[in-house]
Please model this.
Amino acid sequence: MTISRGPQAFPRSEYVRRLAMAKSEMARRDIDALVVSDQHNITYLTGYTAHSGYVPQALVVSMHEEEPTFILRRCDAPAAVHHCFMERDKIIAYPESLIGNPEKDGYDPIIDFLKDSGHANCGIGIELYSLPAQSAEKFRRRLPEARIVDCTKAVTWIRLIKSDLEIEVMREAAAISDAAILRAAEVIRPGVREADAVAEIAGTLIRGVNGKPGTKLATISLCSSPRTGTCHINWSEDVFRAGSQINLELGGTRHGYCAGLMRTYSIGAPSARLRRVHEIQAAGLEAALEAVRPGATCSDVANAFYRTIEKQGLEKETRCGYAHGIGWIEPTASLKGDDMTELKPNMTFHLMLGNWIEEDFGYVSSETFRVTDSGVEVLTTAPRKIFEI
Amino acid sequence: MTISRGPQAFPRSEYVRRLAMAKSEMARRDIDALVVSDQHNITYLTGYTAHSGYVPQALVVSMHEEEPTFILRRCDAPAAVHHCFMERDKIIAYPESLIGNPEKDGYDPIIDFLKDSGHANCGIGIELYSLPAQSAEKFRRRLPEARIVDCTKAVTWIRLIKSDLEIEVMREAAAISDAAILRAAEVIRPGVREADAVAEIAGTLIRGVNGKPGTKLATISLCSSPRTGTCHINWSEDVFRAGSQINLELGGTRHGYCAGLMRTYSIGAPSARLRRVHEIQAAGLEAALEAVRPGATCSDVANAFYRTIEKQGLEKETRCGYAHGIGWIEPTASLKGDDMTELKPNMTFHLMLGNWIEEDFGYVSSETFRVTDSGVEVLTTAPRKIFEI
Model:
């Protein structure tokens, strides 16, 4: 018996549009086949969101075929049939004997497919940055007549500008993020274990809002006193205490798309220092958002923030954000002083204003926004305040 | 102000023991420095569990120093001071300007450190499999006088045999897994959205049991009718229905250590086919566990399972399991027919008997076990049955 195609987050025409952009880039680079191994790029081009990327798998986009071919391990092929927009003959399963096999691995059938489909003497793009060093070497060794071209981030850059359909999905994700930030304000209480609060926050992120559940749980960072100078740790085994500050970073997820959101909480009145940092950062946030419009650069947005807070004697060492969408960070454009990427309508960013000022003191705030035809739309809407418990 | 070292999951002596094993392996391979970039190996050697591994970071183990040196981005350094067993001068922060920088990245200061600490002309081990191809090339280019040795999985293999302290942490994780499997039996009901059930299951995994919270949420796979032939998808947007079968894979986590557990649920009486598969698989599970003892091989355990189910006319294509601990799969020993790894006391495995028989029909069951001095201890204890709702 066969599995049927499941409900699709996007219509076929959306994937055809994305593939057309990928093929245009392939033509520009004079390659006939593109081997996409970055799992987020695979999601973008097919709709596949299963978590099978810990073993070799790749999507092969050919200039000569409308649909790409997805090659993955046998036990994950039914999920690909269920998730992907393509016809089932575009899903190729490789045998389970290649898993945990020191002699051959899943990249071998991917290379075999390139040979069998007539690409052995062509230009072939691979994503060097998402391939282990040994596997990249295998492509070169087993395809000696091919012209191997590094196409790291070629598809990732295409993802930077979203379609209206993608924006709608990110709005759904942002609504979930907002709900989780508000839920946190209800469950963070002195004497409560951090884990118990996170369980409730995670519950909101999974249940979702407006009848639309979260489709995955993105990593939650909860950094409370004395850990507010850290940014990427999970909750601790401690309880919240009177006077604790809590920095929270989370993101609702819909169909692989995240909408990051950060807020700071204080049990009891915030210290004068925390209040002052918040006020300066909030002014910087406003200035950054005001700088967002088509034609401005990432640098302009970042510098609007940096200049505003510097006037008040504050600095921020980390970048102000990054392209945002599938899989959280899209490693392309950064909101930083030297990134001259020009903003265009429907680019989406996580304006990430976390500021880890000293080892034992930091403050977080962020918004997920999109560039509009004339300015900015902030997708996240939680109050821009220190949540006082 | 500085951040203090946080509560440690293991005493210093445990890390010194692990490092001694790593250095013994380094001596065997005649290298002076080992660059550990695999995030799970970093957890193993230091206690660090923050989720910063999406940008370059590495632990450098030197034959000439008792403690290793951890080089990571500036904003993550406080978390390293808080998590790691080492003295704070062993934490080196690289500047934030290297993030999202197309010219240089975090591997540059790691290479600088190797040069500055006198390793430019030495044997240097790197983990090729966890390094992007371009970064491995950078090590070779910037260290032309060094003898670069591929040490992929050198530390990973050391992790295979746990200490009694690690086993105790895995017991805690297993108790959380058991509780989550039982919670699932309470919340899976016809008409309930899959997401709402998963929110409750995730809540149990985070809250933990016996006063010990989960310290991270490992990926949950919930594959219900008509998706029981898939293995690695998240919950869907659907509701459970009368007659639905639900395959659940989850794992409690303590201090980075997972204990995987899979069970199958049926809303209403299981079909005759499902019952028969369960009975055969349960017999295979017993046979596999009976084969576990020091001196037996991974192959012996897998073949005990395969031969038992084959006698009843069933086959399983995927391997029967894998070394298990930090970060779920430890990519070393596999419970498969041709893996001749000899079992030794305190090796831990996820005996993973998921069997995806047809595209639209699969069954799951698993246990996390350790090898004892004379046989086996199963760490997970949830009833070995089809949970009938």
Observations:
- Chain B touches chain A through 84 residues (CB under 8 Å).
